[in-house]
Design brief:
Elements (H helix, E strand, L loop, with lengths): L16 H8 L3 H13 L3 E4 L3 E4 L14 H5 L16 H5 L9 E2 L12 H13 L13 H11 L8 E4 L1 H13 L5 E6 L3 H9 L3 E8 L2 E2 L1 H11 L3 E4 L13 H13 L3 E5 L26 E6 L11 E4 L4 H13 L4 H12 L3 H27 L13 E5 L6 H10 L2 E2 L1 E2 L13 E5 L6 H9 L2 H6 L2
Parallel strand pairs: 3-13, 5-6, 5-8, 8-9, 9-10
Antiparallel strand pairs: 1-2, 4-11, 6-7, 10-11, 12-15, 14-15
Helix pairs in contact: 5-12, 7-8, 7-11, 9-10, 13-15
GO molecular function, one term: pyridoxal phosphate binding
Organism: Janibacter alkaliphilus
Family: In the C-terminal section; belongs to the class-I pyridoxal-phosphate-dependent aminotransferase family.
Length: 465
């Protein structure tokens, strides 16, 4: 496929992806890949809500030189054999792709501006910017008052000295994995698994070891067997509204998993990314695993990002015992500190009189979107597509009819103006079929858009019969 933009002035709007599919007779995947390459080459830019536009070419800077030597220089040395670091963010990038205005985004994992507490964020940022200490270097462990707030939110008798402020969940996960394991070590992960977990593990030179789940989360028997067989010292879990299945691990299972890890002297990284996304018509999820963990087995990760804005990249790592010193050093080496402006903004936000009200409003809106999405999924994919409606989180995990390939469905869905995430994005590398699509509830402007986007899958399903 060739898109000729020769002579097109800067600011020229490209046709929609659907129109490009029709015009060139190419698949939706090919069109998306071509546009992605043009963005990487700096030829076009995507403006959310407006479309894709050409940009002015960069000014000439003389000879570009010969960079071919880098291919050999980037190869890992023999000294790292057995623990090679692998930088592959392709699956993680799937859910970070910007979409044009014509596409209903059921793929993204961050709140659409219509769901964000924008008034509170603006006011908090303004107040934070006026503080005289905002422009001074903050403590490397985080503002004491913000650590107090996170400790209170997590519970379990934690105090500020058990908490470190970090630049949101993904960075905390990557730093924690490197701090707790050595290159070449196995690390137990859920299957299916959040692609950020497997990408961070691979980048640290670790070997993800998938352990199967059931309707209650990670299965203890298989966990015990995996830890016995491999002597792995790290287990990564999302026990609350797991991504992608939405599973909530009940209290008894949480304690059983913690006890198994303790017996094997392994750490449990509790990625509690979605605790702030409880639906209004659902009971509160069980307390975090760390709240009943006197022996320091659990390292807890919490973030404000999912429930506020993708730009408020502020979170916390909590732990008990000597491991906290290791984590403090890892975060210091990786990030030095979280900017004071972000920390003060976060603190002003959660201290604002309207904060709790905004949390309740978000819960209500998530409930509405989940109900609309559930009805649309059952209408479009059949009653068997959803085992259950989740009680929290930002997505549905919908089973496809057996004859459909998830990757093909995602590609054809783009041709019908809707972006979904194919199930194999969450595979752990062992060839799991994962005949599902993940449908985001939060990246589209409204509940109506969510339902309409799901119903756009009807001709895709029909065409595969």
């Amino acid at each position: 496929m060739t898109v000729d933009l020769t002579g097109a002035p800067a600011g020229t709007r490209l046709p929609s992806q659907r129109e490009l599919v029709r015009r060139f007779g190419a698949s939706a995947t090919t069109v998306a890949q071509a546009l992605g390459q043009l963005r990487r080459d700096g030829v076009v830019e995507t403006r959310p809500g407006a479309g894709t536009f050409t940009v002015a070419p960069p000014a000439a800077t003389g000879s570009t030189g010969d960079t071919s030597w880098q291919d050999a220089a980037l190869e890992l040395t023999d000294a790292l054999a057995g623990g090679q670091r692998r930088y592959d963010g392709s699956r993680l990038a799937v859910t970070m792709t910007a979409r044009s205005a014509e596409v209903v985004d059921l793929n993204g994992g961050y709140l659409h501006p219509a769901l964000q507490p924008l008034d509170l964020l603006r006011a908090a940022t303004a107040r934070a910017a006026r503080r005289p200490d905002t422009w001074d270097r903050p403590p490397t462990t985080g503002l004491p008052e913000l650590r107090d707030w996170f400790a209170g939110e997590i519970g379990g008798g934690l105090g500020r000295h058990d908490v470190l402020v970090c630049p949101a969940g993904q960075a905390a996960l990557a730093s924690t994995l490197r701090a707790l394991a050595q290159p070449g070590d196995p690390v137990v992960v859920e299957t299916p698994s959040y692609p950020g977990t497997t990408a961070a593990a691979a980048a640290a030179g670790l070997h993800p070891l998938p352990v199967p789940m059931d309707e209650h989360g990670l299965q203890p028997t298989y966990l015990d067997e995996a830890l016995t067989r491999t002597r792995a010292r790290v287990v990564v879990l999302q026990p609350t509204f797991q991504n992608p299945t939405g599973t909530v691990m009940p209290p008894e299972r949480r304690e059983e998993v913690r006890q198994i890890a303790r017996r094997h002297e392994a750490f449990v990284i509790e990625d509690d990314f979605a605790r702030g996304l409880v639906h209004a018509d659902a009971p509160a999820p069980p307390p975090p695993m760390i709240t009943d963990d006197p022996d320091g087995t659990v390292v807890h990760i919490r973030s404000l990002t999912k429930m506020t804005s993708p730009n408020l990249r502020v979170g916390a790592v909590a732990a008990r015992g000597p491991v906290l010193a290791r984590l403090r050093t890892a975060l210091l080496v990786d990030t030095l500190f979280v900017p004071a402006l972000l920390q003060h903004t976060a603190l002003e936000l959660v201290s604002a009189p309207g904060w709790e009200r905004s949390r309740r409003q978000l819960s209500s809106r998530l409930t509405e979107r989940a109900a609309v999405a559930e009805a649309a999924v059952r209408e479009t994919l059949g009653a068997q597509a959803l085992a259950r409606r989740p009680s929290g989180g930002f997505h549905l995990w919908a089973r496809l009819p057996e004859h459909l390939d998830p990757a093909a469905v995602a590609a054809e869905a783009m041709a019908h103006g809707v972006a979904v995430t194919p199930g194999p994005t969450y595979a752990t590398g062992r060839g799991e079929p994962l005949p599902f699509v993940r449908l985001s509830l939060v990246a589209a402007p409204s509940a109506h858009d969510v339902g309409a986007g799901i119903r756009r899958l009807a001709p895709v399903v029909a065409a595969g019969e």
